[in-house]
Amino acid sequence: MLERTGARVGVITTAGHGDTLAIMRGHGRVAGRSVEDVFAVRGTSLPSPLIVPGAVLELHERVDATGKVVVALDESRARDAIAALIEGYRLDSVAVTFLWSFANPAHELAVEMLVRSVAPGVFVSVSCRVSPRLGEFERTVATVLNGYIGPACTRYLTSMGGRLAADGLTAPLLVMQSSGGVVPISVASEIALGTLDSGPTAGLTGVAALAPANGHRNVVATDMGGTSFDIGLVVDGQPIVENESVIDQYTYRIPHLDIRATACGGGTIARRDPQTGALRAGPDSAGAEPGPACYGRGGTEATVTDADVVLGLLRPESFLAGRMPLDVSAARAAVERLAGSLGLGLEETAAGIVNVNNLHAATLIRQQTLERGLDPRDFVLYSYGGAGPVHAFGYAGEMGMREVVIPLGNGASTLSAYGIAADVARFVEIETSLRAPFDDAALSAAVAGLVKLARQAMADAGVSDEPHIDVWALMRYQEQLMHALEVPVDPVEGNGADLAGRFTREYARRYGESAASAFQAAEVFTLRARARVPAVARWAADGAGSPTGQASRTTEVYWPDAGTRLATAVHDGGRLGHGDTITGPALVELSHTTIAVPRAATLTADRGHFRLLLPAGDTIVNGAAR
Question: What is the average per-residue pLDDT within 105-117?
């Protein structure tokens, strides 16, 4: 998708609606673009087309909003037109998207069969399966994107499954989805769009699986790796699900865990801003090749990891358990060049790089919590990824968050791999129009129909076990087109008054009591169900203790919050047993990451995890306690 090397896609749609992708929506010209880009004094640009130019077939058919067929599809004429479209434009994928197909998919399914009969090797993407949601443009985009990446996904997954089976794998191959579960190859190939951004999703899925056992219902999950900082929220025990995504200004709707990212990781490059002379970090990254200067692979620009080495937060001889010694001289030289341009000292510049990077991370946390009406101080922060545990004390302190969990200890750097061992799960959605005051019978009937579809979706995926099903209502006030809220619904007994009350309370919490009083009646416009069954047995924490891990040595670390070098104890994290507690300043070294424990903070080994408790009363702003 990023390289734009996907399939040659054509669109089959209802007569008169062939320009849907080109027309977009009013906000399509600004969707996904930064504020600076939108208001730049230059002409706006449209995104590159997703389909082969001109490869649009309009068929005479029509279904109305209730699902009633108004104009029947002439399949014999459609067959000839479809064959000509595929041959004339040399298509290897076709996206079928008719008006109101989510109310009655009969015409789309008939065209799907026609495409398969005239061109068996062509991938077919139908909107009633990919994105059965109201919104012609968004549904078309989702269907086309699915067709764009579908052929490559199908070839790759089918080949992989065949090779693994030939090598003796008897279990089914399961593929991670951006919605937070895994599905068999057949489903992942058909709805290939669900694999986009599924990697970061796995980390949040892993956190959501671990948090309940630790007694945490509200969690900020943070993943800091080499190039980016990803964040997701778990609220009341459930990861937040988002409805819309944007790729290159194309908006589409498909349920996915809400993961937001910013460019601040270990490889983030620091520089002097030529306009203001201030220190900046990001968005450019040194990546893995050449990587930070301290990697000794030819990198020359100062990165966050180089700053960590200069400060002493990372000890060169213990990086990756000593398998990859870092070049201290190269790190110092890179930071010194930047320090010279800023007129600052070496360690002052290194501390500034770390502080600015942590501030970027904290800003993203602030956006995802405060803008939702949530107080981050009521949350526990989970920090994972290779660079996360080194910097968690800084960005957690910036937000006033006291408790930080390093999940799975040394496994924190690969928590996303753990998260992929998720439940087999499928989301099913239906459009509806239920308005308050809600009729209990109508609500129960709609929910029962949705639950039936969810069970069928699991059966279609080859899952024979009885699934656990969660149901949510997507709600808003009738006068609104935005500000939709996801409200839990009892899948067995629909209580309209209770649903309306939960919506009003959530709306008031997020937007204020006065905002809720400005509207009259709520409506449910979509019902969403998630059916899931466990794919594997989860890792169980071992509460057994071991001999207390004493500090193996002491080193000098320049702590950004102290502004000076302090004698700092160094512990081997692998030797810390359940219940062992150390007090900062300290470094706890693991083979794949290092946990930085600042002054007055404590770190406790807890059943395979590490709990970092920051001092109460202080909020660290830009690395300085206040």
Answer: 97
